[in-house]
Amino acid sequence: MKTIYKKPDVFLSENMHYCPGCTHGVAHRLVAEAIAELGAEERAIGVASVGCSVFAANYLDCDFTEAAHGRAPAVATGVKRVHPNALVFTYQGDGDLASIGVAEIIHAAARGENITVIFINNAIYGMTGGQMAPTTLVGQTTTTSPGGRNPAGAGYPIRMSEIIATLDGAAYVERAGLYDVPSIARAKKAVKKAFETQVHKKGFAMVELLSTCPTNWGKTPVDAMTWLKDYMIPQFPLGVFKEV
Amino acid sequence: MTQRIICSGFGGQGVMLMGQLLAYAGMMEGKFVSWLPSYGPEMRGGTANCSVIISDEPVGAPTVTEADVAFVMNKPSMEKFEDTVVSGGHLFVNSSLIDETASRQDIDIHQLAATEIGIQAGTARTANIVMLGAYLEKCGAVSEASVMAGLKKAFGEKKAGLLPMNQTAIDLGRQNVK
Amino acid sequence: MTRELIKGNEAIAEAAVRAGCRYFFGYPITPQNEIPEYMSKRLPEVGGTYLQAESELAAINMVYGAAGAGARVMTSSSSPGISLKQEGISYIASAKLPCVIVNIVRSGPGLGGILPAQSDYFQATKGGGHGDYRVVVFAPSSVQEAADLVMECFEVADQYRVPVMLMGDGMIGQMMEPVEFKEPKKRGLHEKSWATTGRQGGERNVISSLHIVAEECYDFCLEREAVYREIAEKETRCETELMDDAEIAVVAYGTVARIAKNAVLKARAAGIKTGLIRPITLWPFPSDIINDYAKQVNSFLTVEMSTGQMVEDVRLAVNGQKPVHFFGRTGGIIPTPEEVFNELMKMAEGEKHENNL
Questions:
Q1: Boundaries of every domain in chain B
Q2: Distance (Å, rounded) from C-alpha A141 to C-alpha A118?
């Protein structure tokens, strides 16, 4: 029998706590594949954040430090400054990166901190039960925007990739989506590129991955993929925003 | 022996340096010393002071609430610190900037036109060193050599050329206080 | 012996470097700015890293990352900045990471003022952040002691894997005194095998503050409690002066202890038998020593630059055996030896004495 695909060893065989149809598992796999393809299993250090991905260390078999909410880029800065040759990455959700941790992500990028940031944008707070996120779309219903996000009081979603791309310290910024096979294949390239940017010591790299949260969106996994494509991409266009 | 000293004036008169020179000189002579600057909001308003203690015993409170010696380089400092001097203590007054004479009868008051004397030495900026000269003459708890050693360290090699002028300022301070 | 006339803040920074600290993350705030300024110049000379963070929150979390990565790391701030760091301190305690935090205390609450105060005692010794944890707190009373203790801070932090705070008031930070930098007393500690360095061919390490299963969190807290007890047993420090025949004990820490000592000497000269108890560690607090003296003296006077914080621990230690009086100045006002002396006179005369502010 011919092996056509094998999960990398760094991707552990634990049963995931993520909900059915959630794309965190896919994103984890892309990170594991990139680490494995770069042969960096022995020098990778992850920084987990607060949110559903607080358990990332349970699934990726490398050193991990778990950060307080929003502080992953600061924690990763501390780790990277001590071990400049380690492959240091953060894995953060939208509440973590685009709300409570805006200062940390902006300044890590502005410093050109030589780390890789995996930013999961699913337009909602998953772990706490579906509250409005900084990336929640206008009109999108959440438990704290029951009538749909109304910009009159709740403002507008934030496009982090575009913001980060304006900073001189950012070396690579791309937004990709996880909604079908071709998009995941493109996302895989983006994730790997973001790690390579670090390996080549070019500076700060971030990949924003548009992701689904079927449970809190109140959709089936398949409908969630469609919704991502139809509604999130117009607000959060895919593409490379910065590459040096 | 314990000498509690207050150096006061406005920013730029070198009152912090005066205090540091005294503390440094004391340390060089093997004494216990402390130097405590005022660093509060009043600094922004232009007045500055520091408290120095030179002692044969370990220094207790680094604050000086009763001074054996006070240097007042401008009028607000005189108003603030004249009463701090203990009976029998010394008050050095920069009469270039302070018209009033001190009212205390129970202390030694030394009036020096430190700015003018400083200009004589080479620049008005040596007014603080002029005052130190007067102090060395009247009640120095440290030697002139130690103060000069402190100046040498403060100036470093780059500004070592300024030492002779400062020596002159000390000499003139001594002469003018007699 | 070479002595240098050096500012407290600079002495703390230099002593930290000599103790092996190679990473510093901070954010400017008065009156501790000489520490980051010194570090920004000094650390690159020894191959270390100085980084000015975007906030105190970021700085303490950089400390968290670097400590987890196995480095000797320090941050410093003053009261309002220390409030911001509390989140990180709680996480550091929970992740069992060693680090040193310097608090050069200014007056508060709120933005307060920049003048000396001791009003962060509660915050430093009673938690500060959330959760069941302790921070070891050293309170130097001179620049020399600040330099000596910051070296100890790193050893204690590494030995027990706890955050350690060096707490001085603004005077400690700003004043200059002669300092002799001694060789740090190394405790012969083990390598940090728990640090995140990359697997490097071995088992992986995970630094975590998450204990989501109740039983695991319970076990974790009990394990830490045992460590805290050990610290209390072995690391409590206190200095006493003139206590042998004392009838009134003055309890004060930091520079206030020096002001109190002047008053004690003056009172002795006036024939009043007083002595000084100076806690050097504020947590663990030298309760046993104070309790023992409660059997000897007639009364206590606690002197602080606050409206009365440490006095609560003194009362707990005395446990009702003798009256505990309080004298304090706060808001950036420094008590004078004369004021403290007057309090001692009143006590000696047996006047009815309420808490005076």
A1: 2-177
A2: 26
Which pLDDT does position C355 carry in this prediction?
47
Q: What is the pLDDT of residue C352?
A: 46
Chain C residues in contact with B65 (beta carbon < 8 A) = 336-338
- pLDDT grade for B41, boundaries at 50, 70 and 90: low
For an interface test with C, give the residue of B6, B29, B34, B84 to mutate (most C CBs within 10 A): B34
Across the interface, of C51, C61, C208, the residue whose CB is closest to A71 is C61
Question: Is any Cβ of chain C less than 8 angstroms from the Cβ of A68?
Answer: yes
Contact: B27, C338; criterion CB under 8 Å: no
Residue B28 near chain C (CB below 8 Å):
no
Segments in chain A below pLDDT 70: none
Does this model's pTM top 0.90? My answer is: yes
pLDDT in the model for residue B43: 53
Q: Please indicate whether, in this complex, the C-beta atoms of C114 and B34 are within 8 angstroms of each other.
A: no
Q: Which domain holds residue A200?
A: 24-243
Query: Residues C13-25: what's their mean pLDDT?
Result: 98
Q: Do C199 and A81 touch (CB under 8 A)?
A: no
For chain C, list the domains and their CATH numbers: 4-235 (3.40.50.970), 239-348 (3.40.50.920)
Task: Give the DSSP H/E element, type plus range, for residue A117.
Answer: strand A116-121
pLDDT band at B12 (very low <50, low <70, confident <90, very high): confident
Note whether residue A201 is domain-resident.
yes
Residue A243 phi, psi dihedral angles, 5° rounding: -155, 120
Cβ separation C65–A77 shorter than 8 A: yes
Q: Which residue in the set C31, C259, C265 is minimally distant from B39, CB to CB?
A: C31
Look at phi and psi of residue C351 and say left if phi exceeds 0, alpha if psi is from -120 to 50, else beta: beta
Distance in Å, alpha carbon of C22 to nearest chain A alpha carbon: 9
Least confident of B28-42, B48-62, C319-333: B28-42
Q: Could you tell me if B149 lies within 8 Å of chain C, comparing CB atoms?
A: no
- CATH of the domain spanning B2-177: 3.40.920.10
CB-based contacts of A207, cutoff 8 Å, min separation 6: A116, A117, A118, A119, A173, A174, A175, A176, A187, A190, A191, A193, A194
pLDDT at C357 over 80: no
Provide the shortest C-alpha distance from residue C88 to chain A (in Å).
7
Residue of C nearest to B59 (CA): C258
Give the list of residues 6+ apart from residue A164 with CB closer than 8 angstroms, or none.
A105, A106, A109, A170, A173, A204, A206, A241, A242
What is the pLDDT confidence band of residue B44, given thresholds at 50, 70 and 90? low
**What ipTM was predicted for this assembly?**
0.94
**Cα distance from A21 to chain C (closest Cα, Å)?**
24
